[in-house]
Amino acid sequence: MKMKESTIILSLLSVLLIVAAVSFIRSAPDSKGSDELTAQQSANPSEPSRDNIGHTYIVEEQRLKAAVAADPQDSVAVRLLANFYHDAHKQGEAVPLYERYLELNPVGRQQMMDLASCYGALEDLESALEVTKRVLANWPHDSQAMYNMGALYANQGDRETAATWWHTTLEQAADTSIQSLARQSLARLANM
Question: What Å distances lie between residue 35 and 32, 39, 42, 57, 133, CA to CA?
Answer without folding.
Answer: 8, 6, 11, 19, 46
